[in-house]
Amino acid sequence: MLKYYIPITEVRINSIKPFDINLYAHKISESHPGTDVIKINWDNAEEEIQKLGLCLPFGITKRRKGLKLFFWNDLFTNVKQWKEYLDIEIKTSWREYKPTIKEIMDFKDSDKSIQYLVERGLNVSLLIE
Question: 127 CB contacts (<8 Å, ≥6 apart)?
């Protein structure tokens, strides 16, 4: 039986949990999607941050002395490669959720949303009435 899952993504920078972000879309799946963990340090920071793109509330720039992590708002001071270590952990866990009919109808994969409704006893004739 299909279940509806919503992602909960937490970002920890140097062991401080500053914020939650929206990195993934909701899923309808038969099995639990599992927990996804992305670890970033100074060695892989450029590649990983560019992969994730604009979803993150921080970015990275190159300076004469090395890399510098900056934030879009003033939550933290900038983290500099030549002054401190970098340990970013982006952890996504999935929570089962009971969606509304509107959320199911707006789901990106129409085949899965139809199958989800049919498994719960809702068919087209019931929705039209």
Answer: 117
Q: Which residue has the tokens 């990195």?
A: 23
Q: Can you name the residues that pair with 20 across neighbouring β-strands?
A: 10
Closest CA to 103 of 116, 92, 122, 121: 116
CA distances from 57 to 31, 44, 70, 71 (A): 30, 18, 9, 6
Contact 87, 15 (CB under 8 A): yes
Q: b/e map of 94-110 (b: 16 or more CB within 10 Å)?
A: beeeebeeeebeebeee
pLDDT in tens, 39-79: 988 888 888 888 877 677 777 888 888 888 877 766 566 77
Q: Are 20 and 8 in contact (CB under 8 A)?
A: yes
